């Protein structure tokens, strides 16, 4: 509210409203005129008063909106004077402000404190249209100053025109940094206008949205969900999601950025439509993500550290999209499909990240591992490390549970270094160790056979052994032997209880001895017959194991597990 005790003729001559108010005051014998809700306050009135008295008035991007709203309030229009203040301010806006990139942004920022006057006078809309139009200009034709990534040497608040000579070409996204300073409601209106013009590349729009999100969304979860900012962050993420362009070719926004938006949307409890839209977009390009991006905190009633169900849902959607798109998830075609190979790596890396969670159930771990086809995981080293971490973080697993989780690993797809680690891993069941050692022996034998047949290529097909086929045959025989071993397990435990403790302490020695026995198996049929003939009783710790002979004493393998020769 402004109060003026003495008014002179120049004011009345320029302001129709003041003229009417003074006339009314004179009729009521009142010496005071009150101007309620005067836009712009005393500084804006001072500009109007100076103009009425013929004094020099300085207008710029910071005060022009307030002066225009004040002039409108005072009705300083052409009806009372042809060259009145409203006319002169409009000329200044059209000839200077709306022609300047930076001035348009500054003016737009000042309009918020002058609502609804600035909106009713269409200053907000004209600023938005000016900014949106300039973003669509061919970068080669840009001659005005911009602050792309704040790399210019000039201060950001200095308004200067660049010379015609450009040292470097102007990038397409030159404008995204400047409009990041706007509030989310004004930013939304600009982006909608930019998109409506249809001249902006969707990739640039995606980059602009990412830049704005990085500028305003806090990295800290506590800051994100704090009572003081949660509503603003909720509005922000919902606005950015609704502005995301259609990504038909999956190139507009990175999967990492979309996952970060999804994380924020979940934490601030954004509306379901925003989360659903993000999940739909992410499921189309999940293979681009990294494991860290998937570490989204779990919500109640989940008890795990991270939201495992969400990741499982994304994996299921991704595989469904692959099937619907006509990709054959079989054989060699999948090996040539880099996206699914990347997905396999992502799943294994994610399993390693969450494996230590004590609340992670075995079913969830196994379900995630089996969400992808076998051929999307040509190497099992990373999966082995994930399983090992799970065994380490869950020491109370039963024998059946260990067998189930270790069944995920295909020992034929382990590298030599990983196989060596597995052979000495105390957390693995004995059966897995035997499988690892045996296949390494088969692989070594096959390599030796290939080396011997190098100079006899014509007959190499008869010499080189089929490692996979022999491995499968011998493992089938091992299963038969294991059943026999289990039947005698109780007796052996009683008889060798003392040796049991020493055997567990010398696990590497146990692995070497198993390997020595397995190595003797591959020496040939003559060696097998000799071993069968000389094999002793089942209770002897030095008895040889002949995998292919179903009559040989199976308890020796279990005996060696608990005793030292």
Automatic annotation (TrEMBL):
<feature type="domain" description="NPH3">
    <location>
        <begin position="173"/>
        <end position="443"/>
    </location>
</feature>
<feature type="region of interest" description="Disordered">
    <location>
        <begin position="520"/>
        <end position="565"/>
    </location>
</feature>
<feature type="compositionally biased region" description="Low complexity">
    <location>
        <begin position="532"/>
        <end position="544"/>
    </location>
</feature>
<feature type="region of interest" description="Disordered">
    <location>
        <begin position="483"/>
        <end position="507"/>
    </location>
</feature>
<dbReference type="GO" id="GO:0016567">
    <property type="term" value="P:protein ubiquitination"/>
</dbReference>
<dbReference type="Pfam" id="PF03000">
    <property type="entry name" value="NPH3"/>
</dbReference>
<dbReference type="InterPro" id="IPR043454">
    <property type="entry name" value="NPH3/RPT2-like"/>
</dbReference>
<protein>
    <submittedName>
        <fullName>Putative BTB/POZ domain-containing protein NPY1</fullName>
    </submittedName>
</protein>
<dbReference type="InterPro" id="IPR027356">
    <property type="entry name" value="NPH3_dom"/>
</dbReference>
<keyword id="KW-0833">Ubl conjugation pathway</keyword>
<dbReference type="InterPro" id="IPR011333">
    <property type="entry name" value="SKP1/BTB/POZ_sf"/>
</dbReference>
<comment type="similarity">
    <text>Belongs to the NPH3 family.</text>
</comment>
<comment type="pathway">
    <text>Protein modification; protein ubiquitination.</text>
</comment>
């Amino acid at each position: 509210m402004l109060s003026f005790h003495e008014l002179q003729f120049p004011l009345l001559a320029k302001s129709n409203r003041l003229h009417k108010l003074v006339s009314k005051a004179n009729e009521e014998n009142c010496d005071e005129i009150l101007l309620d809700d005067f836009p712009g306050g005393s500084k804006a009135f001072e500009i109007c008063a100076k103009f009425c008295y013929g004094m020099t008035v300085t207008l710029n991007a910071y005060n022009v909106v307030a002066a225009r709203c004040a002039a409108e309030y005072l009705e300083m229009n052409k009806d009372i004077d042809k060259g009145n203040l409203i006319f002169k301010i409009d000329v200044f806006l059209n000839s200077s402000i709306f022609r300047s990139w930076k001035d348009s942004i500054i003016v737009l920022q000042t309009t918020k404190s002058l609502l609804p006057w600035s909106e009713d006078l269409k200053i907000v809309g004209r600023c938005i249209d000016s900014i949106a139009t300039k973003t669509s200009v061919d970068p080669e034709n840009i001659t005005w100053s911009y602050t792309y990534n704040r790399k210019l040497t000039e201060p950001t608040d200095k308004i200067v025109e660049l010379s015609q000579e450009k040292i470097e070409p102007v990038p397409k996204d030159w404008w995204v940094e400047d409009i990041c300073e706007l509030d989310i409601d004004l930013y939304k209106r600009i982006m909608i206008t930019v998109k409506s013009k249809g001249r902006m590349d969707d990739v640039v729009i995606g980059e602009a949205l990412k830049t704005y999100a990085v500028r305003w969304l806090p990295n800290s979860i506590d800051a994100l969900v704090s009572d003081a900012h949660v509503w603003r962050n909720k509005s922000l993420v919902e606005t950015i999601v609704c502005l995301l362009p259609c990504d038909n070719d999956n190139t507009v926004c990175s999967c990492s950025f979309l996952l970060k938006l999804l994380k924020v949307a979940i934490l601030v409890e954004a509306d379901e439509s925003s989360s659903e839209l993000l999940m739909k977009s992410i499921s189309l390009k999940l293979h681009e993500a990294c494991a860290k991006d998937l570490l989204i905190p779990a919500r109640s009633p989940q008890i795990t550290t991270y939201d495992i169900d969400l990741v499982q849902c994304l994996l299921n959607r991704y595989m469904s999209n692959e099937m619907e798109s006509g990709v054959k998830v079989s054989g060699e075609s999948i090996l040539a499909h880099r996206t699914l190979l990347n997905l396999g790596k992502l799943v294994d890396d994610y399993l390693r990240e969450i494996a230590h969670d004590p609340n992670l159930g075995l079913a969830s771990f196994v379900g995630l591992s089996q969400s992808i086809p076998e051929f999307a995981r040509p190497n099992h080293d990373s999966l082995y490390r994930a399983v090992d971490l799970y065994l380490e973080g869950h020491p109370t697993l039963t024998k059946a549970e260990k067998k189930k989780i270790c069944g995920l690993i295909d020992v034929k797809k382990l590298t030599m270094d990983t196989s060596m680690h597995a052979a000495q891993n105390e957390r693995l069941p004995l059966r897995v160790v035997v499988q690892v050692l045996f296949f390494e022996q088969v692989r070594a034998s096959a390599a030796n056979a290939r080396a011997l047949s190098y100079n006899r290529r014509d007959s190499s097909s008869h010499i080189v052994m089929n490692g996979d086929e022999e491995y499968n045959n011998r493992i089938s025989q091992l299963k038969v032997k294991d059943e026999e071993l289990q039947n005698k397990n109780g007796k052996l435990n009683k008889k060798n209880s003392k040796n049991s403790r020493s055997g567990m302490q010398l696990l590497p020695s146990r692995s070497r001895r198993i390997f020595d026995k397995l190595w003797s198996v591959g020496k040939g049929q003559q060696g097998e017959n000799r071993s069968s003939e000389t094999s002793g009783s089942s209770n002897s710790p030095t008895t040889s194991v002949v995998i292919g002979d179903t009559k040989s004493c199976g308890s020796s393998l279990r005996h060696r597990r608990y005793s030292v020769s």
